[in-house]
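Hi team,

As requested, here is the filled-out complex form for the S-adenosylmethionine run. I kept the field names the same as last time so the parser does not choke. Let me know if anything looks off before we queue the next batch.

— J.
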Amino acid sequence: MSNFYVVATPIGNMKDITFRALETLKEVDIILCEDTRETRKILQRYDINTSTLSYHAQSKMSKTDKIFDLLAEGKNLALVSDAGTPGISDPGAMLVSLIRERFGSEVKIIPIPGANALVSALCASGLPIHEFTFLGFLPHKKGRETIFKEISNAKRTYAFYESPHRILKTLESLTEFCPNKRVCVARELTKIYEEFKTDTPKEVLKFFEENTEKQRGEFVVIVA
Ligand code: SAM
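And here is what came back:
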């Protein structure tokens, strides 16, 4: 029987990787990577020499067939993404689903939990998080207004990922549609310039407009 491990890797701070993840990455036959160059950084840091194979959102069915062949041969594989937990707004969920469908209980799919930007942001935000809805990345164009209206009427907390190109636009929409909510922008989690800014959408927007250098980086937005 083969094992297929879904392994979380750091979202910034290279120390945020578990002993079990390192042990797994050392022991498997092949590591499937979203981008082999990104994964090499962590492998070099921890002196891991396991072979890598790229697997990303654009990978063709022939790559999936190759992975199926490796599992059928009894190889143990690990799946990693560029950062955090594979499948969470990252490639991987579809592959896991295909492996379950194709192999059933013949392949053991084993999660190796660890870093994740959503959970890191929520747990330190100070906002109510006993119940929340995660939206992944918001649509770029069509459907945005509907989502902001949904958030404005929501009783529970909402969270989503945002890119530096759209953070101001999103804060403008929150100011328009949800002026009375509290919003927390968690930026550069686990990195040197990690920062949480929590206030009304209008005040958070003002803060990022005035501090243009803070418009760069990676963001999780939480709306209570
Ligand atoms: N799989 C990852 C996880 O487990 O969190 C998420 C990958 S998704 C492609 C990348 C997005 O996650 C970024 O655009 C950002 O919104 C969020 N993100 C990832 N790392 C982050 C960090 N260090 N600080 C804040 N947000 C982060």
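Two things worth flagging: The mean pLDDT is 96. The chain has eight helices and ten strands.

Thanks,
J.
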